[in-house]
Design a protein that fits this description.
Radius of gyration: 19 Å
CATH architecture of the largest domain: Sandwich
Distance between the termini: 41 Å
Shape: globular
Largest sheet: 6 strands, antiparallel
Order of helices and strands: EEEEEEHEHEEEEHEEEEEEE
Low-confidence stretches: none
Number of helices: 3
Pfam families: Por_Secre_tail
Keywords: Signal
Number of domains: 2
CATH class of the largest domain: Mainly Beta
Number of strands: 18
Protein name: T9SS type A sorting domain-containing protein
């Protein structure tokens, strides 16, 4: 993994495209069947100075063609020490260890269109788009001892990791409208969707393993959890407008 500021340009092909410079891993871009990213792509990483409110390790990935609209799957890499340094100044934490599954739900990415020579938020000069990765795509690689954070991107640019400590009015409203009760739960939970009509609920155990997927709607929002063993579970609710919200549920 990169230990200093690095830049690498590659021509992307179908499948995984790894960006390394001086034998230092920067990022990965996956060109899937539906992805539109093509041609030459430049990936940058900065590790030289702290960024208040963000993880110090930050990235820029931009294709030469159609950077504002191209699509693809991005993977960013982080050391545990990157998260530890961030946690020192944040009340809402990133994972404090590979086993800290609950804190995965706190991780968000801010994307800024454009390019930068310094890798600071201010240098991009564009509004942020917030990306919330699926918690199953925040993975500890125990072989190489680093975090892999993967997500779909529509348009490329600068990527900054933080926690979802600042909720906008719409986020607060969504968080209150969409709910799961009771919590703790024993046999069943009820999913309330607010103004939404249907959703897909994916349930992950404390190890990050997907244990169940259930489709719910306004007429049938009850989920049987009686077969789940006691413990902590993360319920990711994907609404019919593709908004996602994650709830931590205790199974008794």
């Amino acid at each position: 993994m990169a230990t200093s500021n690095q830049t690498k340009a590659n021509t992307v092909a179908a499948g995984y495209n790894y960006f390394t410079s001086a034998c230092q891993l920067i990022s990965r871009v996956e060109k899937e069947t539906a992805s539109t990213v093509s041609g030459s792509v430049t990936s940058k990483v900065w590790v030289d100075n702290a960024q208040p409110g963000y993880v110090a390790r930050r990235f820029e990935i931009n294709p030469t063609a159609n950077a504002a609209a191209a699509t693809g799957k991005v993977t960013l890499y982080f050391k545990q020490s990157d998260f530890d340094d961030y946690n020192l100044a944040s009340s809402i934490k990133l994972p404090s260890s590979p086993s800290d599954i609950a804190a995965k739900a706190n991780l968000v990415i801010e994307k800024y269109e454009g390019t930068s020579n310094t890798g600071t938020v201010a240098s991009f000069g564009t509004p942020a788009t917030v990306i919330t990765p699926d918690i199953n795509d925040v993975v500890w690689n125990d072989t190489y001892k680093y975090w892999e954070v993967s997500f779909q991107t529509s348009g490329f640019g600068g990527y900054f990791v933080k926690t979802s400590s600042t909720l906008g009015t719409a986020d607060i409203k969504l968080n209150s409208e969409v709910n799961i009760t009771p919590n703790p739960a024993k046999d069943f939970v009820n999913v309330t969707l607010g103004k939404h009509t249907k959703a897909s609920v994916t349930i992950y155990d404390a190890s990050g393993k997907l244990v169940k997927t259930v489709n719910v709607n306004t007429n049938s929002g009850r989920i049987d959890v009686s077969e789940l063993v006691k413990g902590t579970y993360m319920f990711t609710i994907t609404l019919n407008d593709n908004q996602k919200i994650t709830k931590k549920i205790i199974k008794q």
